[in-house]
Amino acid sequence: GIDGTYAIEVALDGGIANNISFISSGYTLGAATPQTITVSNVSSSITLGAGTTATVGNNVTLVTPSASQNSAITGAGTLIIESGGTVRNGGTASSNVLNIHTATVRVMPGGSLATIFYPGNGNAIFVNGNLDVLGGSVIGEGTIGIGQSNANPAGVVTISSGLLTAVSSNGIRFGSNSGTTPGGTVNLDGGVIRAD
Q1: What is the reported pTM?
Q2: Which of 10, 59, 144, 180 is the most exposed place for a label (fewest CB within 10 A)?
Q3: What is the rounded average pLDDT of the residues 17-26?
Q4: CA 67, 169, 161 angle in degrees (round to 5)?
Q5: What is the mean pLDDT of residues 7-26?
Q6: CA 191, CA 109: separation in Å to the nearest integer?
Q7: Would you give the end-to-end CA distance of the chain in angstroms?
């Protein structure tokens, strides 16, 4: 459809999608009761068209399968995670990653961007786009990698309010895995940043 304001009532608990793509702005996914949708595409779990804005709202959780799998938020748009909304990597291996590529993700009060706990280093969140923590919570049960990609080492995390936590012996890391490509920026304008 065309850009507008669309409240989409989700009634697909336990549903499985290859990916979720937003090509127009103004869509908000919400539900009267908790709904969990499993998104299985590794390289483009959530795709945002250029200049588009979409929202994961109350009672909606988008999650990867619990098998060993990465997930990615891609495109040149903005994903807003509102109160009661969750985007989570559900992979069960310490090498699993939730990647924010070129997209912008905004985590609002009551919203959550997370990975699940796994013994050892846990699952990571790599930011190679923009992550704005605006009152919500970002919990990486593994490394938080900022500018982690050799291809796009310019990840930016801005924390204005809310919480960003890395629960890993690796903590928060800047630049590529190899350490040869520096990158990444953190703007701490408020809120809490924590490495446990």
Answers
A1: 0.92
A2: 180
A3: 94
A4: 85
A5: 92
A6: 11
A7: 44
